[in-house]
Amino acid sequence: MLKRRLNQKDVEERLKEIRSAYSSFSSKYNKNRNLVASFDERYFEALRTRMDLDRFFQAEKEALKSMEEQELAGLRKMQNQKTEERLSQRQKKDTAQRVWEEHQRRIEKYPSYGLHSEASAELDKLIGAMAAYEEEHWSKMERTFRAFSPGRDMDTRVALEMRWREFCVPGTDGAPPRMGKYRTLLSRFPRDQKAVEWEERQILYDAARFMGVLRNTMGEFLNDQKLPAAEKKNIEQGQAVLEEILIDFRLTDLIRLS
User: Fold this and answer.
1) Segments forming the whole domain that contains residue 146
2) Residues 125 and 253 placed together within one structural domain of the fold
3) Do 217 and 169 share a structural domain?
4) CA geometry: angle at 27 spanning 24 and 32, to 5°?
5) What is the pLDDT of residue 241?
6) Does one domain contain both 98 and 131?
């Protein structure tokens, strides 16, 4: 059966249909409005070369369909990327939340020092943990250090003793000397929050460096084969508790950086 050739009315309907389709495509996907003009140029070229108009219009429809599929695929890809990004951000947030909750759970067992009503809970707990450690373990170890070798590393022991006083022994205002500036910053109005946060970080760094020196000093004594068993036990107990504090307050990385 012979295929019917397009008459003028058919051509005009096809032209209107495809022009409308290109115009809608441009608006829908925010494309250049020259799509319709480009189509008209191709149509006039098809007339000039006496191309079969039915085939020409069919090719334009297929081209439009392919363009639409490409745009939809691009939109789907963008949507998938956005979905993946949201999931990734949510996972990071969930992970950070779990880490924070685990951190809070770990430090809950330590006593609060009572630095200030608006002090960082983590910092207040750290100073409380250090004060308890100084009372329960440092005094025993310091006696061991002096009894075992009175002249050995005296400068280090004196420096450690001074640091304990700076961090844990309250002054006339009720705060240890190292916490004085921090308490003053918290009490000022208006409060400089950036300065408060900076001082908190500096205190954490100082505490990490101090406990790193203490850990090294204990390690040196434990490596000494002449250390009596009773004294060795005191230092080992102190070492175990110190490591737990360092882990619970996430200070091991700070020691490496200091």
Assistant:
1) 121-257
2) yes
3) yes
4) 105
5) 95
6) no
Is residue 234 pLDDT above 70, yes or no?
A: yes
Count: domains in the chain: 2
The residue among 245, 153, 256, 156 whose CA lies nearest residue 205 is 256
Q: Rounded to whole angstroms, what are the CA distances from 148 to 7, 155, 171, 217?
A: 114, 16, 32, 14
- The Cα–Cα gap between 173 and 183 comes to 10
Shared domain for 18 and 94, answered yes or no, is: yes
**pLDDT band, residue 113 (cuts 50/70/90):** very high
> Which of 72, 104, 136 is the last residue in one of the domains?
104
Assign 188 to helix, strand or coil: coil
- Which structure tokens are listed for 190? 């208006």
Q: Binning pLDDT at 50, 70 and 90, where does residue 256 land?
A: confident
The pLDDT score that the predictor gives to residue 129 is 96
Q: What number is the average pLDDT over the span 79-92?
A: 77
